[in-house]
Every structure is written in C-alpha cells, then in structure tokens.
Design goal:
heterodimer; A: 251 residues; mainly alpha; 8 helices; 0% strand; B: 314 residues; two-stranded antiparallel ribbon; 13 helices; 2 strands
C-alpha cells in the first residue's frame, strides 16, 4: 500500500468501515442464531470486527488530529458522525444479513480477502497499522476457518442447503470484484496479487462444497467512493441516531 | 431398600450439605423441581438476550456496543451451561426447547417488558441482573451439584454485568438533562418488575417449603426481595435518582427498608402471558428455531457424509 500521508487516513478509514459495517450486520444475529453455539460463534466474530474497527478508527483519529492540530476526532466521531457518502466500505459488507447461508458465505469471502490483506499489511511501513494487522490476523485466521467450515457444511449438506448456497453465491458474486478494484488510497499491484491468491482459495473451497464459481459476472462497485447501496443509509440512521439526537453527550 | 428409607437417606445427605449428583437416587419430585427450575433458568437466559439485543444496533458508542454484545453473548453461554446441567436430569435440550416454544415451560417474566430507551440497558444491568444475582448467589449453594457448579461460573459474570449496568447509568446521571430524564424514566419502569422477579409472597408461594427443605432454595422469596430493596435503596443515592415508591422508608426497628405493595394483579397477568412482550419474545425464539432448521439439518447431513467417507477409507 502507498504510504503517503494523503492516502493513509482514507485507507485506514476504508479498513475500519469494512469492519464496523460488517460487525453491525452480523450483530443482528445475536439472539437469533440457528443454534445457541453458533449464535455465540458469529457474535465472537462480531466482537472481533468491532475491536478491529475501534483500533483502526483510533489510529485514523490520531492522524487526523495531528494534521488538524486539535483533538476533535475520536473513534466515535468517525463511526457515528460521518454520513452515507463518507463511508468507504465495500458494498458487500452492507448487504442485509440474509439467511444463515448468506451470512457465512459473505463472511468467508470477506475473511479470505481480509486475511490476505492483513498478511500483506503486517509488513506495512506505518508501524501502528502493521501492529493492528498482526493482531487482527490471528482473529481473521479463525474467521476464515469457521466460515469455510460452514460453507462446506451447507454447500454439501442437504439438497435444500445446497440450493440455498448456490443461490447465495449467485447473489453475492457481483459484489466481490470491488474488493480488488484499487481506489486512489490503494496499491493496484498488491490488490492484483491478493486477487489471484483469493480466487484460488475460494475456488478450492467452493469446489469442495460442490458449488460453482460464477464466471463473467458484471461487477458492482462504488463503495470505496461513497456510492453505496440503499441499505447503508438505513443502517447508519439506526446506528447513529443517539449520537445525532444528543450532540456532544457522553455515553 | 424401601422408598421411605431412600428418601430418609436422601434427606440426610442434603442435611449434611453433601451435593446430590446426577447418578444419585433422588425423589422424583426433587428431580422434577430441579428440572423445571434449571430449564426455566436456561430459557430465561436465552429469552433474556432479546430485550437487550434490541439495542445492539443502536448502542451510542463503539465501546458501549462492544460491552452490550459481550453481555448478551454471555447470556447465551449461561443458557448453554444451564441446559447442560438440566440435561443431567434426563431431558434433552431439544425437548426443553420444544416445551418453551409450546408454552409448557416458562421463563422469567421480566423479559416480557419492552426496552424503550438506551437507559434501559443500564437499568436492566443494575436492577434486573442485581435481582438475579441475589437469587443466583444463593443457588451457588443449592443441593443439586451440577446446578450449583453452573451457578458459580454464572455468578462471576453476572456481578460484572451489574457493575457495567450501574456504570452506564452513572454516566447518564451525570449527563445532559435529557440523559438524566432517560435514566430516571428507566428506573421508574424497571423498579417494580424487578421486585416481582423474586416471585409471589412467601404465604402464596406453592413450591417454597419443600424447596427449602431440600435446600434447592435457602432463602424465601420475601427474604431475597428485602435484601434487594435494602441494597438498591442505598445504591440509588450514588446516582442521585429516586425509586418510584412513596412508601420506601428506612425502618430502624426492623433494620430494613419498608416498601410499598407490589401490583400483584400485573404480576399474575404477565405470568399468564398478558405482558407487553410475551407473544413477541416467544415468537422471536420460535422464528429463530424454525428459520435455523435447514441449517441444523444440513450440519447433520454433512457430518454423516464425512463419517461415511472416513468409513470407506478405513
């Protein structure tokens, strides 16, 4: 990744937004999972993602405050007081949680990407960022393992679960291309090499799950430029309402 | 040995403070009472995830969001320990869940009240968990071993939750006028339902005497309720808030706080299913279970396929 000061903050915010928005979606499962043990497991992942988002927002806030010479930015101003067009997460993470199969498939596709990206960032020149990547890599390794197992189980489970997963793959695939479309704050060459490895890992898993990797799909994009799906506005309205309604209050 | 002798020996074991274990002989009524109570407790943990889960997506800061999610997740964990403890008495978790969904098994009525504002998260932690803890600390010494051991683990986490709830209210109590009003309103709404958590008055409690004799319970409903009132009447001073009871007053002679009469009509109505959220809570559990059926079936089918593959290789 580029390490120029003008691209560092947008890049950190991009990473943070992906984590927060996916956590917010996954948190909708808490209390509603298909079985108690898995309710706990998806909630663990949610907590990891929030933890990563917090570290990244705090880091971004440090950079912003240093640039502006004040202390105005915090993890909460960045999460709660930016609007729809300012969030730069990929579209994939803001999609509704869908059924359990959609949730675990999305988690798997995203976690494999996150794993490869964090592995690369572990050697990043921005030392606090590489420290976050190293710490997060352990968690993401587990997310990959857990979600991969569920993709296998559901893909190769019953004919009903197979069909649901085959449909989910079709529904989500058009949102995968954006992960590898370099924004100005990203390094295209790095993303390209991650893409190759990601595709290989995903193909192996889907094949083992008796699912087919879609070909020649027209890819949706825009999240990194703040052009989102209609879902994000509702999510932020819900997430941010207390901070918006009670300006400057402490919680 | 005759049943009479077995019962006598059982009572001696209980009186000697030796824990009853799953494989020990026990009176059928003791088994049934424990099974009812432990499964009801497990259901309460799981249904109890819903009113707080209601605020996860709206938590006002990332820290509060993380704390709330972790708390609700702890409750799922408590549900698991308790279902396991109940299973030692001979009923499967599937059957217990079926009984919850059919309405045969109950859960704590407190979760049939709605969570209307963010301050309710603090009030539930402080008052509802506070009331639960008094009951649970007692249950750490209950005579049935698996239940007592589950409670020891649960109590540690619950007291943490109570402190977090109080701390969340403390922040509101020092906040803006709107936050202070929100805090007082939540206390007003949760106070009486929290007192109801200890159950009917001793004089009207059907299960109490035998449960005391078997040391399933060690304090009566009224004793525990009084302990709770005494504790909260002190703690609320730190918040600078009030409890919604004009009759609440320190009684020097008794060494306890006197308090007003609970609305027992409301209590029995919520127990009977007429609370504001009874239908909604149960339906949410049924929906989660039914919508997860294909997932559980697929997991079983996949495990079976994997086992068959291993067999073929071997």
């Amino acid at each position: 990744m580029k390490n120029q000061s003008n691209s560092t903050v947008p890049f950190i915010l991009y990473l943070a937004d992906n984590n927060l928005i996916l956590a917010q979606r996954n948190s909708e499962w808490c209390g509603h999972g298909p079985v108690l043990e898995q309710d706990i497991a998806i909630t663990n992942i949610t907590l990891d993602l929030i933890g990563q988002a917090r570290m990244l927002y705090q880091l971004a806030a440090d950079h912003i405050n240093r640039q502006n010479g004040n202390q105005d930015a915090t993890e909460d101003t960045l999460a709660y007081l930016r609007n729809e067009r300012e969030f730069s997460n990929v579209l994939m993470v803001e999609l509704p949680k869908g059924h359990w199969g959609f949730t675990v498939l999305r988690q798997y596709l995203f976690s494999e990407f996150q794993y490869l990206l964090y592995r690369h960032l572990s050697a990043h020149a921005d030392e606090p960022l590489s420290a976050i990547a190293i710490k997060s890599l352990k968690e993401v390794t587990y997310h990959v393992q857990w979600s991969r197992e569920w993709v296998l189980r559901l893909g190769d489970g019953t004919s009903e679960s197979h069909q649901k997963m085959a449909d989910a793959v079709q529904d989500i695939w058009m949102y995968t291309g954006e992960l590898f479309q370099a924004a100005p704050f990203e390094d295209a060459a790095v993303l390209q090499s991650i893409h190759t490895e990601w595709k290989q890992r995903i193909s192996e898993t889907l094949e083992e799950a008796t699912l087919i990797v879609p070909e020649k799909v027209f890819m949706q994009q825009g999240g990194k430029q703040g052009i989102h799906t209609e879902h994000l506005g509702y999510m932020l309205a819900e997430m941010q309402y207390l901070q918006r309604m009670h300006p400057n209050a402490t919680w | 040995m005759s049943v009479h002798h077995l019962e006598e020996k059982f009572q001696q074991t209980v009186d000697a403070e030796i824990k009853i274990e799953a494989k020990d002989w026990m009176p059928e009524a003791y088994r049934k009472t424990n099974l009812r109570q432990i499964s009801q407790h497990a259901h309460s943990e799981v249904v109890g995830m819903l009113p707080e889960g209601n605020w996860i997506t709206r938590a006002p800061s990332l820290k509060r969001k993380a704390i709330l999610i972790a708390k609700v997740q702890d409750e799922a964990g408590h549900g698991l320990y308790l279902y396991s403890a109940a299973e030692t008495l001979g009923m499967s978790r599937d059957q217990m869940i079926a009984d919850l969904h059919s309405g045969k098994a109950k859960y704590s009525s407190i979760f049939n009240y709605p969570t209307l504002t963010w301050a309710d998260m603090g009030a539930i932690g402080w008052l509802v968990d506070g009331a639960a803890i008094l009951n649970q600390v007692m249950l750490c010494r209950t005579s049935y071993g698996p239940y007592a051991r589950a409670m020891v683990r649960i109590c540690k986490e619950e007291s943490f939750h109570q402190r977090q709830g109080f701390e969340a209210l403390l922040v509101l109590s020092k906040g803006t006028p709107e936050q202070r009003a929100m805090c007082q309103d939540a206390i007003n709404r949760w106070w009486w339902p929290s007192l109801m958590m200890f159950g009917p008055k001793d004089a009207e409690s059907t299960n109490s005497d035998q449960s005391m004799k078997w040391k399933i319970k060690r304090k009566t409903n009224d004793e525990l309720r009084q302990n709770f009132v005494d504790m909260i009447a002190q703690q609320i001073k730190l918040l600078g808030m009030t409890l919604p009871d004009p009759d609440l007053k320190w009684n020097e002679a008794r060494g306890h706080y006197d308090f007003g009469e609970i609305n027992w009509d409301e209590f029995w109505n919520v127990v009977k299913g007429n609370g504001p959220c009874n239908k909604q809570r149960l339906q949410a559990r049924i929906n989660a279970h039914e919508e997860g059926a294909w997932v559980r079936e697929a997991a079983v089918a996949y495990a079976q396929k994997q086992a068959n593959k291993k067999k073929q290789v071997a």
